[in-house]
Structures are given as C-alpha cells and as structure tokens.
Amino acid sequence: MKVVIMGCGRVGSELASQLDQAGHQVTVLDINPDALRRLPPQFRGRKVIGNGADQDVLRRVGVQDADVFIAVTQGDNRNLMAAQIAKLIFGVPRVLCRIYDPAREEIYRSLGLETVSPTRWSVQVFLQALSQAPGEARREE
Amino acid sequence: MYVIIVGGGKVGYHLAKALRDDGHEVLVIEKDRARCEHLEAELGDIVLRGDGSEVAVMEKAGFNRADMVVAVTGDDEDNLVICQVAKVRFQTPRTIALVNDPKNAEIFHRLGIDHTVNATDAILAQIEQELPVHALIHLLSMRGGGLEMVEVRIPSQAAVAGHRLKDILLPQQSIVALIIEEDGSPKSPDPDTVLHPGDKVVVVTRRENEELLREVFSRPAPLSSPYGPLSLQR
Predict the structure, then answer these.
(1) Which residues on chain A are in Cβ contact (under 8 Å) with B53?
(2) What is the pTM of this model?
(3) Chain A residues whose beta carbon lies within 8 Å of the beta carbon of residue B103
(4) How many C-beta neighbours within 10 Å does residue A90 have?
(5) Which CATH architecture has domain B122-218?
(6) Chain B residues with CB-CB distance to A81 below 8 A
(7) Residue B199: which of B230, B233, B168 has the closest Cα?
(8) For residues B136 and B231, what is the distance between their CA atoms, to the nearest angstrom?
(9) CATH code 3.40.50.720 for B2-117
(10) Per the CB < 8 Å rule, is A107 touching B107?
C-alpha cells in the first residue's frame, strides 16, 4: 500500500514507522526539517520537506498514486484543507484526517470526510478511567 | 446587511471601515490581542477577539444571522475552513475568501466557496490595465465551464474600429455582453452597434479563446487600407 503522511510529529512519525515496518511504501511530509528527525534510523520510506496543503507539493510526492493519505499536522484547518485536496482533487481512495476541535470534526464527518478526533477520544478514556476503581484500568492493560 | 469579517489585518480593517461607513452592520474577528486593541481604538466596538474558525466563536459572533462572511486571514487553510463551516453549519448565504496563493482559487471553488479574491491576480490585472500591449483585462472567472469575463479596450488603430458587431468574426462561444463608450457610458450591444476606438468591450469567452479574442479586437489596421486584414465580412 502506498501511504502519504502529512505531519511528522509524535503521531505522524510513529504511524510512519509502524506502517513502514509492516511493509508499506511510506512518504512522510513536514514543513519543518527537524520534525523528520523523529523518524527512526531504520525507516526506509521517503522523507519530504514541504507544505501538504500546497497542491504542487502533493503532486510532487505522487499523492495521485497513493492508496492512503493521512493528515496529522498540529493545525486542524491545514489537515482539513490537505485532506480535501487529496480526496477531491487527487482522488486518493482512503483519506484520514485528525481534527482536535470536536465541533469541526463533526461538521466534516457529516460531509463525508473520515476524521479522527483525539480530543473526544481522550475525554472518553478519562471518563472511563474515573468510573473505575483506582488501579483497575492499569490492571486491564 | 450584516457582514462578518474574519481577520483584522490591513484588508480586514479597511474593508470593515468601508462597509461600516456604508451603513452596514459589521463585525471583525481577530485572534491577536494587540491587534484587537488597535482595531477597537480605530473602529469602535465592532471587534471580537478569538479564532474565527472555532465554532464557539462563530456562534458568539452570530454567524447564523450573517448575510455575508468574508475570510481575509493570511492563511488560506483558515479562510477555506471558515467559509466552509459558515456554509455548512450556519447556512451563510454568501461567503468570500481571500486566497493568498493564487493557485488555491480553483480548489476553493471546487470546495464550495462562493467567491475568491486574490491580490496577485488583482495586481496582475492592474498591470495589464496599465500596459498598452495587454489590451485584455480579466474581470471574472465564472464557476465551472471554463468561462471568463474579460474587457478589451479598442485601440485607436484597431482594425475593428468603425465596424458593426455583426461583421466581426469572434472566436467560438464568445458573446459581447456590454460596451462602455469612451466617456464612460454603458451601452447594451446589438448586432448593428459600431465599435469606436476607446470603447471598452466586455466579452464572455472561453479561457482558451482569450488570445484570439485579444487579437481580433486589438490588431491594428494596415496603413494602406481603411479595413483590417481580418476578414470582417460574412
């Protein structure tokens, strides 16, 4: 599977590294060259410095041939714009997009974008932990 | 009309001032505290501090009753999302986005933004207007279909000057929509309208026919003949 990941933060770099180990063809994109250093030395994929919300950059990394595009930069709006370009302009079959703001996440999910909201998800995890006795959650792990 | 402007930079500020002076109800949303204080000092109590792409801020600003939302921040991704959320969540009738990178204009249209404005193209159009060699000015790109509205000024030595519209062979799918005479008065064209040097002709045409159109209207007549080298007769 050809995967393009935009944003090489903690999530992006870990995701890239695991997909690479699983044998996928991974390209990681970040505007900050320092961020790409998060990738482990054994990473075999492609590292590209550039803005994924720029259609020329996306074309250059070959997003039109990708099977999956994942937008995980720190900026919700940047992720939303890049994800929509990947999906609607370049026709990438599977596009995933992280959105911190639950309200925006809901809106774009209703428009058919496949979204992930870590905010909503973390809140659920915390509430669930609180509903259990101390130490119980840890034992389950 | 209630107009919400997101982004209190230079464009946002002057826009707010002009619309307010025109009697419209205006609100400017700006993230930066210092900038907000400056705007408030200049414009009065029509400034809201916050991230204009946050739904909570939008609700507070009254997006649900806005007649128009104008997103003029320095980041294209913010302008896109502001206008999309305004449309989808608040059913804003009209959205206008500033496009900082001109190549995003096409994408914005495909993603549902009613209207985009970009400084680069506006300045280019101005330059075209200043340069006599560039007799063709872009007025408007119409959504879908690849149609453009352009303005051509008839040069003094143009071959078409003195000819009726029906005798001028235009590129395919080109329609003369309006003629503005040299004194500035608009005229609705009909087949017998005669073109004069200095007239501005507003034409709807296909993008690929622009060069041909410019050629037709601005090509000079040869000195030897009062009629142009173009075949103007049917």
Answers:
(1) 76-77, 104
(2) 0.70
(3) 55-56
(4) 18
(5) 2-Layer Sandwich (3.30)
(6) 76-77, 80-81
(7) B168
(8) 21
(9) yes
(10) no
